[in-house]
Write a structure and sequence with these properties.
This protein folds into two domains: about 240 residues, FAD/NAD(P)-binding domain; about 230 residues, D-Amino Acid Oxidase, Chain A, domain 2, CATH 3.30.9.90. It is built from 16 helices and 26 strands. The strands form seven sheets. A seven-stranded mixed sheet has the order 7-6-17-18-19-16-20. The chain has a six-stranded mixed sheet with strand order 9-3-2-15-22-21, sandwiched between helices. Strands 1-14-11-10 form a four-stranded mixed sheet, with helices on one face. The structure holds flavin-adenine dinucleotide and iron/sulfur cluster. Flavin-adenine dinucleotide (FAD) binds next to helix 1, strand 4, strand 16, strand 20 and helix 8.
């Protein structure tokens, strides 16, 4: 007999075990502990995470601004697993052979990293999860949420996906249909373009009157070095090469502890070249003379990819709905010029938890009560920080140098000479395949400069047998796309998931390579790819990213 779906009732539910979800869990755990000490009730707080363990699917830079962490955990600096304090930093413009340093006086104070830390987000998250569990929060890993449960115009919980289906979707011996988890309030912290968040944003009209959310794609590696010929705690970020004019983005180098260093490349997902391969661009970036001399003798040990919301202030949706709150990247809370979202994720998770706690104490989960979350965020330093850079990304949409000029002028005049908000364009205007000058070839060396397949092996994705979690909506469109653009998905996907099979005239999907970046949902020129979370626990298994 087919097993029935289970039902679980929580008092407060959190979806996603990244910095936003974990800070919500910790704050709720702290409140519950204080309540228990004074003889009060203790709620059943549940956090669900799709990774095999907390941190398995997390990838970031990351240089963190510790402000929100200190508000959450007062002795954070002493106890957290930090890699390095930033000691030396530079912002550089790269030409193909040279590196031109922006003078320190030309950089606005908010772009400086004095007092910030380099961390591995995966490590910090594991530490935060231990903290939350110690405070009594129940963390369910290997649990993919596949859709919201909306009843009577309210978000009342989430549905987790089945396990134990074969390739064709038929139940195997270990079949588990999944669970419906109900709660009077759900904190959504699934990261960028969340599976539940995107549905509720539409269902509750949360993005009405806002600018559209846009994204960048990022690839990142952790590299092991035989020795470090630079001061500990050095970081640098680069603009220019290998990006071409018109591409918004750049590279980063962050010194970690021990033999490790984190490097990455971030490009806006509106590039025009259908042949662009972000993974290959990262290899080119590492071969730049300035970058390469920091990586001599290095060996890539982990590889990851992700999207980053970059719509900014004017694209942030309404943050509350009946029964739910949006936090972190799910709400687009990223400071684009700083390339930082972790402190905003932590802060929003913490405030969401405080509002959810008060609602639970009062037994009042009305929309008006939950609206307090957005009111408090709007009155906070986090909102002010986002407001200050509200038109930054928009300034760059007509090319990089013009963008630099506009952003500089904008800052200097406080935006008085400009429209506010500046308009933003969404989507791709791809050039025909072959119409752009070819990029210089990359020579692999099997250690530092890796071909995509070898790099993916460093991401260590693992999938049990199951139906593909990636789907092409209309394979007919791929025929036209192949003719005009030579199937960009076969290049832009950092996981090498898509392959054009000429004998069948179709795209073949190898979903077991997928690193969960969701770049495909934005980079396909025909909006023809759908990504959904695979079976809980499947995907990459990061430890250092
Ligand atoms: C390459 C790169 C470099 C970056 N550098 C920096 C930096 O230097 N400093 C900085 O501050 N920020 C940086 N950021 C941004 C920062 O990483 C994010 O803003 C931050 O991680 C957002 O936190 P979050 O908790 O909202 O989401 P996430 O960190 O994405 O966490 C979401 C969690 O939810 C889980 N999840 C998602 N969907 C589901 C589901 N359906 N079911 C169950 N679980 C689910 C995921 O597995 C994940 O664990 C960088 C991002 C990238 C990609
Ligand atoms: S999936 Fe998208 S990018 Fe790939 S061939 Fe089809 S239409 Fe083109």
């Amino acid at each position: 007999m087919a097993r029935a779906r289970e039902r679980l009732e929580a008092d407060i539910l959190i979806v996603g075990g990244g910095p936003a979800g974990l800070s919500a869990a910790i704050r709720l755990g702290q409140r519950a502990r204080d309540s228990a000490r004074s003889g009060g009730r203790e709620p059943f707080i549940v956090l669900v995470e799709k990774g095999r363990y907390v941190g398995a699917h997390l990838r970031s830079g990351a240089v963190i601004d510790p402000r929100a962490f200190r508000e959450l955990i007062p002795d954070f600096d002493r106890r957290a697993p930090l890699e390095q304090r930033v000691t030396e930093e530079a912002v550089l413009y790269l030409t193909p052979r040279r590196a031109l340093r922006f003078p320190a006086w030309a950089l606005p104070p908010e772009l400086k990293n004095e007092g910030n830390y380099v961390v591995s987000l995966s490590k910090v998250a594991r530490w935060m999860a231990e903290e939350a569990e110690r405070l009594g929060v129940t963390i369910l890993t290997e649990t993919s949420v596949v859709e919201p449960i909306i009843e009577g115009g309210r978000l009342v919980g989430v549905r987790t996906g089945p396990k134990g289906l074969d390739r064709n979707g038929q139940p195997r011996a270990n079949y588990d249909p999944g669970t419906d988890i109900y709660a009077p309030v759900t904190i959504l912290a699934e990261g960028a373009h969340g599976t539940v968040a995107r549905v509720v944003i539409r269902a509750f009209g949360l993005a009405g009157g806002r600018q559209p959310m846009i994204y960048s794609g990022a690839v990142k590696e952790v590299i092991e070095l035989p020795r470090k010929d630079y001061p500990p705690g050095k970081i640098f970020t680069t603009l220019g090469y290998p990006a071409r004019y018109g591409t918004f983005g750049g590279g980063f180098f962050y010194d970690m502890s021990g033999p490790y260093v984190a490097v990455g490349l971030v490009y806006s997902l509106d590039w025009t070249d259908p042949d662009l391969d972000l993974h290959e661009e990262l290899q080119r970036w590492k071969l730049h003379p300035y970058v390469h001399r920091h990586l001599q003798g290095g060996r890539v040990v982990q590889y990851s990819a992700c999207i980053i919301p970059e719509g900014g202030y004017y694209a942030i949706p309404r943050l509350y709905m009946p029964g739910g709150l949006l936090t972190g990247d799910s709400a687009g809370l990223v400071n684009v010029p700083r390339n930082k979202g972790i402190h905003l994720a932590v802060y929003s998770g913490m405030v969401a938890a405080e509002v959810a706690w008060d609602a639970w104490q009062a037994g009042d989960f009305s929309e008006e009560r939950l609206a307090e979350y957005e009111r408090r965020l709007r009155a906070s330093w986090a909102w002010e920080e986002l407001y200050r850079v509200r038109n930054f990304r928009q300034a760059f949409q007509d090319g990089f140098l013009l963008g630099l000029l506009r952003a500089g002028l904008y800052r200097w005049t406080g935006g008085r000479l400009f429209r506010d908000p500046l308009p933003i364009r969404v989507g791709h205007r791809l050039a025909r395949h072959g119409s752009q000058a070819p990029r210089p070839p990359v020579r692999w060396d099997d250690a530092l400069i890796l071909d995509k397949r070898s790099d993916i092996a460093r991401g260590a994705p693992k999938y049990d047998e199951q139906p593909s979690h990636l789907r092409i909506v209309d394979s007919g469109l791929c025929l036209e796309c192949q003719r005009l653009y030579d199937s960009p998905c076969t290049k832009f996907c950092p996981g090498d998931v898509f392959r054009w099979e000429p004998s069948e005239a179709r795209i073949v999907i190898s979903h077991e390579n997928c690193l969960h970046p969701k770049i495909c949902e934005f980079a396909c020129p025909y909006d023809n790819i759908r990504w959904s979370p695979p079976q809980g626990g499947d995907g990459p298994n990061y430890t250092l990213t």
